[in-house]
Amino acid sequence: MASNTTSADLFAKCAAFDQVEHAKAMGYYPYFKPVASAEETEVSIDGRPVLMLGSNNYLGLTTHPKVKEAAQAAIERFGSSSCGSRFLNGTLEIHLELEERLARFLNKESALVFSTGFQTNLGAISSLVGKGEFIISDKWNHACIIDGARLSYGTMKRFRHNDPDDLERVLSSCPEGVGKLIVVDGLFSMEGDLAPLPEIVELAERYGARTLVDDAHAVGVMGPNGRGTPEHFGVEDDIDLVMGTFSKSFASLGGVIAGDEYVISYIQHNARTMIFSASMPPAAVASVLASLEIMETEPERREHLWANTRKMMHGLQELGFDTGKSETPVIPIVVGEMFTALGMWRSLLDHGVYVNVVIPPAVPPGREMLRTSYMATHTDEQLDHVLSTFEEVGERLGII
């Protein structure tokens, strides 16, 4: 369709967006790589086997027989979709079963599941925080937290990453007698470090604020029973709301928010991403239920995940790589320069190892990195190969 020459063309910025084509032409475009196999420790990319170090499949459950059988059985019973929102016709019996199970697992009165993790934070935060109230957010929080704050009618204030002193500065700047919600990632997804929840809880109590912990990468991973960072730090009773996603340890798709029943009921009846989105499909719900049962009955999976994490943390640090402040199965390799990071990503892939490359604006300039993450199902042989590959590529590029 011809455009009106008297006004600016909305699509002009699209025509000028040429960075992707330049990166592809140079062989350094690292995104949207199609995987032609199941998400396991080894996948097929571009027709060849590649060791996967970029997945959030921490417990390795995506191909567990019980998970696949549960998904298939749910399709046989409920079909492929509810074809409606939870608010109207889309609440199935298994949605309620999952919410009851998750509430018990997370030691909360009530839980509510959404169709994606992003929608969970988007809907919960935007519905809870109103005009004249405050969202206080760690500067490194996930995009869904930032967008939830933007969609609310409240005011967002940010504090320096994992800095309780700066959090107190921000809290003290808020007017007295107004609602305040402190929101943090429990386990930060790029650098693998943990929020200082004990200090955050103490400040929340002192300044009359509520707390929401996004534990997307920590549920199933952290804590003696896999209940996440609140359990890890022993502050479960002090955290008001815990959010989790199903696309990591639960090997499915969706999200959950858990807390006191009256708060969850309010979110359920006010969150636009709940009311105006189709519900989780039956197969996804059943997959989460099966994964939860495996988490509770096979703790050795989590133990193996941590053994792999310790092996790789020690091995990478011994080789001389900068792994930041990670203390989790998410281990960054800080490179510090964009084209060096892209070159290392490309070389690792050429050697059969897939990692995620993280460059600005996802990280500040000078903080460019490779993000690696590990599964309970990685073998010692695979991890030994990864370490030898990192050594070879790191030495050749002058990183170590």
Question: What does it look like?
Answer:
The protein has 400 residues and is of the alpha/beta class. It has two domains: 19-52 and 299-396, Aspartate Aminotransferase, domain 1; 65-297, Aspartate Aminotransferase, domain 2 (3-Layer(aba) Sandwich). It is built from 15 helices and 13 strands. It has helices at 12-15, 19-26, 65-78, 93-105, 117-128, 143-151, 164-173, 197-207, 229-233, 261-268, 272-275, 282-297, 299-319, 338-350, 380-396, and strands spanning 42-45, 48-52, 110-114, 134-138, 155-159, 180-185, 210-214, 241-245, 255-259, 330-334, 353-354, 356-358, 369-373. Helix 4 (93-105) packs parallel to helix 12 (282-297) and helix 13 runs parallel beside helix 15. It is globular, with a radius of gyration of 22 Å.
- N-to-C order of helices and strands: HHEEHHEHEHEHEHEHEEHHHHEHEEEH
Q: What is the molecular shape?
A: globular
| Gyration radius, rounded | 22 Å
What proportion strand?
15-25%
Uncertain runs = none
Distance between the termini: 55 Å
Named CATH architecture of the largest domain: 3-Layer(aba) Sandwich
User: What level of helicity do the residues show?
Assistant: 40-55%
Number of H/I helices: 15
Helix/strand class: alpha/beta
Number of domains: 2
Q: Would you state the CATH class of the largest domain?
A: Alpha Beta
In the CATH hierarchy, the third-tier topology of the largest domain is known as Aspartate Aminotransferase, domain 2
Q: Give me the side-by-side strand order of the main sheet.
A: 3-9-8-7-6-4-5
Overall strand count: 13
- Global mean pLDDT: 96
Major sheet attributes:
7 strands, mixed
Fourth-tier CATH superfamily name of the largest domain? Type I PLP-dependent aspartate aminotransferase-like (Major domain)
